Amino acid sequence: MKKGKPRVAFFCLLLPLLILVHCAQEGEDNAPAQCGEFLREKNGTISTPNFPKPFPAPLKCRWILQGTNQSQIVLVFTQYVLLHSLHIYEYDYFENDTVYINKQFIGEISAENEVGSIVSYRNYVVLDLKVTDPTNANLKVDQYLTDYHGFNITYLMLPMKATLPALCSLHHCSYLGNCLVTSDYSKFHCDCFQGFWGSQCHRGPHCDPDSGINSCLNGGQCRYLYGSQFNACECPPNYMGKLCENHLISNKKGHSSSVCSHFMNKSPVSNNSCDPENKTSNCLDEERFRIFVQMNILSRDVFLENMSELEYYRQYLSDQVTLWLENSKLSSADSFIISNISEEKIDFHFYIDKKELMFVNQSLHSLVQDGNLFGIAVNQSQMIVQIKPEMKFLSLEMSSESPIKEGGMLTLTCTARGSENIQFKWFKNGKPLNLTVTHRNAWEIHLPETIQGKHISVLNIDGITIYDKGKFTCEIIDFGCKVNGSIILNVLPLPVVQVDPLSVSMVQGSSQTLRCISAVDKNDESLTYSWLKNNRMFHENDKEIVENIHPTGSHLYIRNAMASTNYTCQITNKAGTSAKTVYVYVVEDANAKSCPSDKLNYILWNKTFGGIYNLQNCPENLASMKKEFEEGIAKRYCNCTEFSCQWEPPNFAKCHWSVLIKIYNDLKNLQLGYMEKTLTEIFENLYTLTVQTKSTLLAGDLDLASTILHVIVKTAKDFPSLLVDQLNIEKLVELLNILLEETLRKTDEEKKELQVGKQLLQLIETLAHFKRANFLNAIDIQFSKIDVNIIILMPNTSDLNIQVNMKTKGTTEEPVLLPQPVLAVHVDQSLIQLMDCNISKKVPSKKLISDVYSYFPLVSSPDAKMNFIINIPHNVNKQLSANEIVYCMSLEKEKLDSSSVTLQQNSCSMIQTEVNQTQCLCTLPGHYTLVSVIRQYNETTSERIMFQVTLFVAHTLCTIALLLVLIVYLKAKRCLLETKNAIHFNFTISLVGVHTVCILCLMQPKKEMLCLCGKMILQLFTVSAFTFLLLDAIQILIDIHARQHSHIIIGTVKFIIIGWGLPTLSVICAIVTLQVAGFDHQCSSWCWWSPMHQHFYSVIITLILLVIGQSGILAFCLVIITQWKDEWSYRDRRKFIFMIGQSISLSVILFICICVSIFSTEKQVHSSKGLVIFFNFILTVVIISFFVLLKKSIRPSIFRKSLIWKKKIFLDLLTKKHQT
């Protein structure tokens, strides 16, 4: 009994838990079924795990639904996007896969089959889901059903004779809503996504027949069928086709539906004369035809007798033929006109209905029966009859309702009837539309003779802008007549936000009201307003109050301001959202320094605290350009010192004169293809306005004027046909000069925000193109800030890459170096100040000493690169001191698509400097100037000569010493068979080559070809020296490895090939690269690489990589050696440590020599020059010590030779003494 008590207690504790679980299950009758349940409830849902999110895979589930003999099991696929893997079976009885009765496979359910529901009258229904790979397992419908996975199925167990409720599915809801069921599972309905409506979500923004938005013809009803991108037409009886355009003669009931893109949901509906209320009838336009008749006159003499009464006879003949037509089978004929009557022929035409076409020939032959046309003998057999459709303007339709949002697409469809020669022309505001002179995405298509003999012209414009607003006219021309129709296009732009004030200075604890309204649509009640505080939504704790003002507008009330805050007002319409920020500055002290209210330039500047900007709208005669320019805001800074505060001059960089904006709008319309004004007219208007008002132009006006001028020139370059006459180069250069002069007068703060300098530079580059195309009428012009003329330059024949770079694309012939005409443009150096150029950091302590000189060859291709020697004069007020070095610089874009400009030395190098000018070797075309760098001390000519002599002697002594080392190695021939000695021998040869190159350059420092070749040879020997040091490290690693493992054999020849092959490859790569980038023509005192050129960096990077490789190998060797702990390894460890130290010492000293040499070249300091000599001597001494004196394999041979030499001398002395 005692043993059973614990069990009883356990069950007593477990019983309440079981009861709770059971109750919980009872409360979850309608909860979604879990994966693999046995379901007996009357209704519920079955869904994949995580629906509608992705389900895990692989997945295997089974749902078993058990009904009764008196029930039906209904599966409603409310939300089903699975393409495969769900199999459904029905049974009379089911227990498992082996125990069942009457199995029946219903099918594999796929969302593509659009199955809405399944009804089973058996007792069991089994759903088997087996998914191994979820890839492409779900239906994706643009645009709302792209992230649905799996399914959510609703099941119902209803009495056998019960009527099913109205069911739905995703397909039933047009894939634009979810199919939902009420909580009691009695009703199903579509819950549409935002923007769509209807019982089946079949109505939306592009399809709403109740509101007149209907693309279907003949009474058809459009509806969304397969998501938001497609719709279809539900046609009335006897009509079919995508737009219900085809009429069927049939009494069968029903309708057809065809799918079409929603972009065509506004296709044109022709005007007709039928009853507009009879929407389902075959209501077509009445077709009429033009009958043209030409008859040759036979009795010319008889006709000539009546020439005096020609007009009378014309009228008589017209009345007779008209009367005859009314009584003939052509009773519908009208508009009879005799177009020509002469002594040879008669031409006339009239119009009839289509139904009488079959009687035309018969009637006309009866008209001239027996060859008599009311008294005139005509040739009946040669009568010409032409039947053409009547020219008739039918309709002009717009694809979307006006207004159209900015950025949308406009499709205009012009429908007409006429002959095959009918022409369409498009106009905007009465001016021609020319799409061949625009870069915009726009096109016009003429569809000749479509169904019912109609001609259609479709005008498409993608990316609608505010400039497209206006009246579009379609004109048809046929039979020498013109007819047109027009339609008004309204464009819905983004809201223009207007806030007041733009900025405000407040004392802590004060209040302020901020106002926000749409500057354009002030009566538009559809606008919505919202406010942000420091770019976030308002919190519950914020004390600001927002009130909407009717009919439109919003106020923000600030109470008890405590800290500076930015408040942003957002206005939203159908086109989108625009915003503007109000800057609220709060100070604690009411007596804080401030600038008082002041009225200047028609603007009232409010009281502003020190160190703060006051923002105001531009004056009334100024405006702002939306999108192309920032909104028109003027600002003024309150500058406070210790004693007082004073207003700075206003900044009008964002204000633009309305007259200039009108010129810009004309230019923009021309760019879009609207021929309202010619390019020449726009240029003349800009020139006249700028010249007449130059002294009153504000900073923003200059910026806009330069932009207009830049766009004019660019448009003329792209579409020369827009130029009525040649560009007046004198006026163009005068405009450049005015813009440069006036911009320099503006404040420094305004200059920072202007783009005048960069645009002027681009304009200068375009002048050469116009001169090549003969669009410039003059070429020798001088103004105060800019000169333009043509000069003759000779390409530099000594340049290594001239032969390659002068070849143009597709040319195989060698170029001929002839004097080249070059367009030369001289601009004041202030242009660089306006561009705020970044001078390369490689040029320290720099200053500009010349103006900007631009050169553009006119004969060669624009893609050809040629090197010319050009002379750049020094500015008179920029006299050079004796301790200044001059660099030739080029103005280049930082990136291909960037407007940022920097000064570089990549394409220009200095040859020599004189008192008043500097000679540069530059790659044309380009823009060039001079920059001077101050030396740290003034070096006299005698000091320079003395140093060069000293340096020459030092290099010579080092060369002699290293040659002696080589001789010693050659004497000990057997020692060279050892790999290590061979490496040291070649290392010494490399250093001898370096010293030799330096000696040659010191002897001939001004020979350019020797300098260029010397740089390449110097690279070869320098890289080879470091390569052999790397190989020396590799050999040390091999020797260490051979001590404990098998010996690795790498032949001496292979080491030598690598040691010279790698440097040779680097030199070849450098030559190939410099053929494109340009060689380094700057020769320092001993032909060292200039840090201003990329050749220097290519060599330095190679050397650094070699040093890193050597250091890594030697560090690895040290790690291995330190692991040797046994006593017998002590001697070997000491030997290898000495070898590693020797290799590191050589590498460090050699690298220091290179660095000191470069430093002395750039800085020109006495101490650095002395270091060059010192470290070269140190390197030579170290090499003699390591490679000869301390090397046991070489040292005995030296001593042996010495003993033999001494013995020989001693014997010679003895022999002479004996003879004596």
From TrEMBL:
EGF-like domain ranges (all copies): 164-202, 203-245
Matching SMART domains: CUB, EGF, IG, IGc2
Signal peptide limits: 1-23
Matches recorded under CDD domains: CUB (cd00041), EGF_CA (cd00054), Ig (cd00096)
Membrane-crossing residue ranges in chain numbering: 945-970, 982-1005, 1017-1040, 1052-1076, 1096-1124, 1136-1159, 1171-1190
Domain called Ig-like: residue spans: 389-476, 495-583
Lineage of the organism: Eukaryota, Metazoa, Spiralia, Lophotrochozoa, Mollusca
GO biological process: cell surface receptor signaling pathway
Positions of the CUB domain: 35-158
Membrane topology: Multi-pass membrane protein
Record localization: Membrane
Record carries keyword Disulfide bond: yes
Glycoprotein among keywords: no
GO CC annotation: membrane
Disulphide bond pairs: C173-C190, C192-C201, C216-C233, C235-C244
Pfam short name (any one): Ig_3
Keywords: Disulfide bond, EGF-like domain, Immunoglobulin domain, Membrane, Signal, Transmembrane, Transmembrane helix
Protein name as it appears in the record: Uncharacterized protein
G-protein coupled receptors family 2 profile domain boundaries: 568-659, 947-1181
InterPro entries per the UniProt record, alphabetical: CUB_dom, EGF, GPCR_2-like_7TM, GPCR_2_extracell_dom_sf, GPCR_2_extracellular_dom, Ig-like_dom, Ig-like_dom_sf, Ig-like_fold
MF annotations from Gene Ontology: G protein-coupled receptor activity
